[in-house]
Automatic annotation (TrEMBL):
Cross-referenced Gene3D superfamilies: Vaccinia Virus protein VP39 (3.40.50.150)
Domain of life from the UniProt record: Bacteria
Domain Ribosomal RNA large subunit methyltransferase K/L-like methyltransferase: 153-243
This protein's name: Ribosomal RNA large subunit methyltransferase K/L-like methyltransferase domain-containing protein
InterPro entries assigned: RlmKL-like_Mtase, SAM-dependent_MTases_sf
Length: 306
């Protein structure tokens, strides 16, 4: 069971788009599937419950535990509260106590190493291993950054939208700035590298990679038009004229340039260029949006038209 959470005001579009791209099913906040997805890749998956036993009667789960001979060091059994079913406190407390008794090992009530959880949805109790997604923002504070750097949630969404379930793809970020997308891709275990035409910016990006223990040479100073290697995917956050003059035509030239080294593209733009991107010979596969205040980012997945 994967638990999705997001802020509807400005993240809903990204969360639903990512969900559809990963699971290929209609969105559910509490989503049950046999697919084992690396939940740490997504900023919208807050918890994952690996289900050991399910039943409409908690006694059956206790009987399962009596036969399973589970052993954990420093574990805790909790009742996972959800938004759909309310279970009274005393009932929750009693159930967790009864579930803990058959499990061998040592308990730890504060900051346990292992969390086992039971929850109730649609009159069914689900018991299993609970994992929380807490570390996705560990690269948020970088030694070198600037005010208009790509938000981490947008970077992760763009990567997940482009990669889907194939993490073996080779990825390039040809306007990488201070390396936000590259850092997040490396944290997700992806095969990614970056470049930037600005010598000083690419230097700061290399310092950011080195600070977090990655090979700084994964980022180099290079003009997008000089990229000769072929990649499976390109993530392009186009410059939009905050620190330099970059007109709409200039931005479209950068988008069009990616066709020489990549056939699949996730492009991030300040305005909705969907029709203009299509006019360049791309097929639009999906699009979502992130907006805070008056500043919007459009995340568009497209492929070179065959």
């Amino acid at each position: 069971m994967y638990v999705y959470k997001y802020y509807p005001q400005y993240e809903e579009s990204m969360a639903l788009c990512e969900f559809e791209n990963i699971f290929h099913e209609p969105y559910e906040k509490y989503f049950f599937t046999d697919y084992d997805y690396d939940y740490k890749r997504s900023v919208f998956i807050k918890e994952r419950l690996t289900i050991f036993k399910e039943s409409n009667d908690p006694k059956e789960i206790i009987a399962y535990l009596n036969d399973a001979h589970l052993y954990y060091e420093n574990f805790k059994v909790i009742f996972y509260k959800n938004d759909e079913v309310h279970v009274p406190y005393e009932e929750r407390l009693s159930l967790c106590h009864r579930l803990s008794e058959p499990i061998a090992g040592t308990t730890k009530l504060h900051e346990p190493d292992v969390e086992l959880a039971i929850t109730k949805l649609n009159n069914i109790y689900y018991f299993g291993l609970l994992e929380r997604n807490r570390d996705w923002h560990r690269y948020e504070v970088k030694p070198h950054s600037y005010s208009h750097s790509l938000p981490l949630k947008v970077a992760r969404c763009a990567l997940n939208l482009g990669v889907g379930n194939d993490i073996s793809q080779s990825i390039i970020d040809p306007c990488c700035g201070v390396g936000t997308v590259v850092l997040e891709g490396l944290a997700m275990g992806l095969n990614i590298r970056g470049s930037d035409i600005n010598r000083w910016v690419s230097y700061k990006a290399r310092l950011n990679l080195e600070h977090f223990g990655y090979d700084p040479l994964l980022i180099e100073k290079k003009d997008i038009h000089d990229i000769k290697e072929q990649y499976d995917l390109c993530i392009l956050d186009v410059p939009y004229g905050v620190y330099s003059n970059c007109s709409v035509d200039d931005q479209l030239l950068l988008i069009n340039a990616t066709k020489s080294f990549c056939k699949r593209l996730v492009v991030i733009t300040h305005e909705n260029y969907k029709e203009r991107i299509a006019s360049l010979g791309f097929v639009i596969r999906n699009q979502c949006m992130y907006k805070r205040g008056n500043f919007a980012r459009y995340i568009t997945l497209c492929e070179v038209e065959k």
